[in-house]
């Protein structure tokens, strides 16, 4: 009996040390961290369900760092990137953020994708006074001085998508998402706006992040017979969702789907034929005809993969690094407090998605585009918002009376 | 929402979910019953099955490539199962806890190997056109892919039942299952029996991987999603019983699908765990109690 208990204890010890061992061991991309280098963290999921999307964001961030180093660095110092794997797990993100800041002493961190990962990292950044550059669209309802939110606020992605759908005459909406804070909050905002417009929410369903069983959800969609599905699923779940929708005879050409997390890269990985005809709302499409965009695509493809698909979060990740560099140079130093204030007053700067700027609430002023996926995995741009949209972290309908002043 | 109208389609969906649970669990159940081995790398056999399907479809793209992928995945994962058994499990035969750890390590190694070989992003396995559609029966739309999964599961179950009850090796398996020492004393090659069962279990998981690829993503983590329900099925079924495992898979698959009429998928999963806990409180020996010396510790 005792020996069994001992074995169980030993097992537990080994299991926990193995688990820790498996997660540690970040790689340093450049040597020469001493002397005149400046260390920054790059923290994305390189493994797990989010790897499908996040690895290329890491690549884009690394590309920017490499380009900046080739051009002489920041304030004459070369950037050393410390790459860590958040492993699609919020607590791993928090742990790695704390390691980067407190053990490695990085000046700033680029990374995060799911809002769950951002929410988990937020206390670490607030405690240490460091600065996170977050590249992905999110649900708003958060406003921290320690995060630069370059991804779309709800009024820069979700609401333009809804406006477009209303304009197309869709009256009945089915909301489906992964079960965490972004889809839940985004759908809360969408529901308020759908109801305000006098339209109908035909149903709302959530599946755990990484979940692959959509049988029940699809049965509900078949019953509810919506005009359009608004899809906030994240990661691999999308593959399962579209496969099972197709198997049930509901391909995106028969029942329109508007997705907020499917870009060119995800479409390519899923097989464009599976998602052909589905809609997406982003601040950037690879098919944008801009000179800076062509340059970025060429540089990325030269470094990584000649056929690589380029997505909105990759461009946000890339522009974050350049925005940090510009802010550091404006502030004349690496102190995160000064850098964030400098970033918010940088004014307009050129990016692959055209000129953008940071607003006083540390979110990006940017345009929104609606695109339809073609068979080659690229989006045909159907409409754009015209003017750049001012970011609104707190939707006035869903969160009345709240505002963001930093 | 009209929950009565949802009942029939969900009944069918439940059957297809149960089929996948069963295919994922049957290898675990058999090898646990026989060897008391908890194979943590079993989920990776599903994952490998998915990748083997992808490789087969690269070589034979046509409409019936997926049919060829089934035997390829079965034999491929069975061969890997043989390697695992001979290289790892046999050597740790008398140390069940060490097997648990070693196979878990193996599962991490296989996941990382798949990541390095095929990329972290996953690969595309497209259902051929004849499997991509659906059949309408009145109001109920039955996806062909799910129908195929149910049919394959019935075939596999029939095959295993035939093997266990009608063949020489099946007789040996039942003998070893009942009393390993005694079976060995009568001249049955216990190691060969164990190897056969382990390979067959891995092969069935590989088959499940191909079928899963019709409905879900093929990624290095694909096996992880199904390993927990598979363990639940094994525990609830009564360790090592084919009938019990089938019934438990059916109960859990149907329960999860029907619960989704009223709740979100997250809540349905939680309720499924609650169901298993309650069930084991009332009936700790599982659906079918197996009298096996192998389990008398």
TrEMBL record, chain B:
It is found in: Cell membrane. It comes from the Bacteria. Pfam families: BPD_transp_2 (PF02653). Keywords: Amino-acid transport, Cell membrane, Membrane, Transmembrane, Transmembrane helix, Transport. GO terms for biological process: amino acid transport. It is a multi-pass membrane protein. InterPro entries: ABC_transp_permease (IPR001851), ABC_UrtB_bac (IPR017779), BCAA_transport_permease (IPR052157). Belongs to the binding-protein-dependent transport system permease family. LivHM subfamily. This is Urea transport system permease protein. It comes from Sphingobium jiangsuense.
């Amino acid at each position: 009996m005792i020996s069994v208990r001992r074995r169980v204890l030993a097992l537990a010890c080994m299991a926990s040390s193995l688990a820790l061992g498996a997660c540690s061991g970040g790689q340093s991309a450049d040597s020469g961290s001493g002397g005149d280098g400046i260390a920054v963290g790059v923290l994305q999921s390189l493994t797990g369900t989010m790897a499908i999307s996040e690895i290329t964001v890491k690549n884009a961030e690394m590309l920017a760092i490499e380009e900046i180093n080739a051009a002489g660095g920041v304030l004459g110092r070369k950037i050393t990137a410390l790459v860590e794997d958040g492993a699609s797990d919020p607590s791993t993100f928090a742990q790695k953020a704390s390691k980067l800041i407190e053990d490695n002493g990085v000046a700033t961190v680029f990374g995060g994708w799911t809002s769950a990962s951002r929410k988990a990292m937020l206390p670490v950044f607030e405690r240490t006074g460091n600065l996170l550059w977050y590249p992905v669209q999110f649900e708003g309802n958060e406003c921290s001085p320690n995060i630069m939110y370059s991804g779309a606020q709800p009024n820069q992605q979700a609401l333009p998508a809804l406006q477009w759908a209303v304009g197309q005459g869709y009256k009945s909406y089915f909301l489906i998402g992964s079960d965490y804070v972004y889809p839940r909050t985004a759908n809360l905002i969408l529901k308020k706006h759908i109801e305000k417009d006098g339209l109908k929410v035909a149903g709302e369903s959530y599946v755990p992040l990484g979940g692959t069983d959509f049988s029940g959800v699809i049965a509900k969609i078949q019953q509810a017979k919506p005009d359009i599905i608004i899809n906030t699923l994240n990661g691999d779940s999308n593959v399962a969702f579209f496969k099972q929708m197709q198997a049930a005879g509901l391909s995106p050409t028969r029942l329109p789907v508007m997705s907020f997390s499917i870009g060119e890269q995800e479409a390519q990985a899923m097989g464009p034929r599976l998602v052909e005809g589905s809609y997406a709302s982003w601040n950037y499409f690879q098919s944008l005809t801009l000179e800076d965009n062509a340059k970025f695509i060429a540089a990325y493809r030269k470094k990584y993969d000649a056929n690589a698909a380029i997505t909105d979060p990759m461009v946000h990740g890339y522009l974050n690094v350049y925005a940090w560099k510009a802010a550091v140079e404006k502030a004349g130093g690496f102190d995160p407090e000064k850098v964030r204030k400098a970033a918010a007053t940088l004014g307009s700067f050129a990016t692959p998605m055209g000129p953008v700027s940071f607003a006083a609430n540390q979110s990006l002023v940017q345009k929104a585009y609606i695109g339809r996926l073609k068979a080659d995995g690229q989006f045909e741009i159907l409409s754009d918002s015209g003017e750049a949209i001012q970011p609104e972290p707190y939707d006035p309908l869903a969160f009345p009376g709240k505002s963001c002043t930093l | 929402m009209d929950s009565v109208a949802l009942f029939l389609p969900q009944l069918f969906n439940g059957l297809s979910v149960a089929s996948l649970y069963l295919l994922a669990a049957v290898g675990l159940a058999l090898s646990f019953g026989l060897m008391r081995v908890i194979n943590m790398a079993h989920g990776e056999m599903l994952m490998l099955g998915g990748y083997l399907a992808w490789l087969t479809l690269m070589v034979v793209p046509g409409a019936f490539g997926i049919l060829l992928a089934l035997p390829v995945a079965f034999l491929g994962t069975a061969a890997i199962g043989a390697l695992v058994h001979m290289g790892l499990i046999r050597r740790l035969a008398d140390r069940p806890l060490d097997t648990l750890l070693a196979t878990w390590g193996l599962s991490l190694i296989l996941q990382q190997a798949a990541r390095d070989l095929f990329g972290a992003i996953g690969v595309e396995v497209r259902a051929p056109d004849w499997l991509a559609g659906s059949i309408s029966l009145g109001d109920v739309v039955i996806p062909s892919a799910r129908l195929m999964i149910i049919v394959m599961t019935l075939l596999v179950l029939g095959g295993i039942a035939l093997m266990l009850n009608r063949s020489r090796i099946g007789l040996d398996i039942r003998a070893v299952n009942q009393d390993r020492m005694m079976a060995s004393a009568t001249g049955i090659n216990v190691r060969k029996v164990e190897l056969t069962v382990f390979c067959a279990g891995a092969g069935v998981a590989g088959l499940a991987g191909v079928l899963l690829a019709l409905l879900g993503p093929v990624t290095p983590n694909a096996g992880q999603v199904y390993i927990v329900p598979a363990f639940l099925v094994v525990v609830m079924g009564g360790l090592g019983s084919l009938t019990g495992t089938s019934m438990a898979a059916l109960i859990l698959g149907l329960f999860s699908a029907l619960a989704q009429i009223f709740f979100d998928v997250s809540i349905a999963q939680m309720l499924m765990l609650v169901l298993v806990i309650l069930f084991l409180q009332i009936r700790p020996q599982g659906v079918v109690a197996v009298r096996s010396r192998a389990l008398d510790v």
